[in-house]
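[agent] plan:
  1. take the single chain provided in the ticket
  2. run structure prediction with default settings
  3. attach structure tokens to the ticket
  4. add a short note for the reviewer (M.T.)
[agent] executing step 1
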Amino acid sequence: MTQIKKIWSNFKRYQFLMSQLISRDFKVKYKRSVLGVVWSLLYPVLMMAVMAMVFSQMFRFKVEGVNYLVYLMTGIVMFQYFSEASNTAMTSVVGNFGLLNKVYIPKYIFPLAKCLFVGINFVLTLIPWFILIILTQFGLGTYPASINWYYLLLPYIFLCLFIFTVGMGLFLSCISVFLRDVFYIYGIILTIWQYFTPVFYTIEILPPSLQSLFKFNPLYQFITAAREIVLYGRCPSITSIVVMGVMAVGTLLIGGFIFKKKQDKFIYYI
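[agent] step 2 finished; step 3 output follows
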């Protein structure tokens, strides 16, 4: 409890720095960009259009009884958030070595700021996602998406995704200080992870033994829970809700523990 109070106290104390880091990331990302923040809205739509054309038309991928566009975009926006946030969090400590060498700053602020920054972009991507859901009510696609009261559970699902991503960000940012090869290895891991996550396909096409294995993937749990609500109009099972929370908090605790244990040595390796 004392440790939690200390972290919360530091968070409030360095809140201004956090906002400045997030503001800086926005300025850098959209510098000299004509469309600017609009890209946050366009990117998932364009990705959905390309992937829908490739997998539904060329490879004939489809999911029976649901709107494939919504199915696809749900997977894209959630996996894209995790991918971008964990990737940028991984480089956050090494990338801010100048600040770390000059003044004392709680080091966890850097990966957390990256996850929050990408989280703002994630919230923006939800706008075209919701628009797409509404358009299915007016004939876009064979099946309409569902609009129901279970949407109130979506913030919980997105929060679990955020907490899980912060935990991964803390772990990766710590490891990358000591082993820079992680910058290159993680890109390969993300590619493999994407194919092991049912973003554009359904695990029902896999053998039962592989289906059980895929369910250990936290991103599968988050994406599937969101799809249960949006596509099928069903509430995720209690087991699924508990598993998501345990995976998220467990990853945060493990990542936070490793980060805290090693952070005092960062200065010698950066």
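[agent] step 4 note for reviewer: Residues 34-269 form one domain.
[agent] ticket updated
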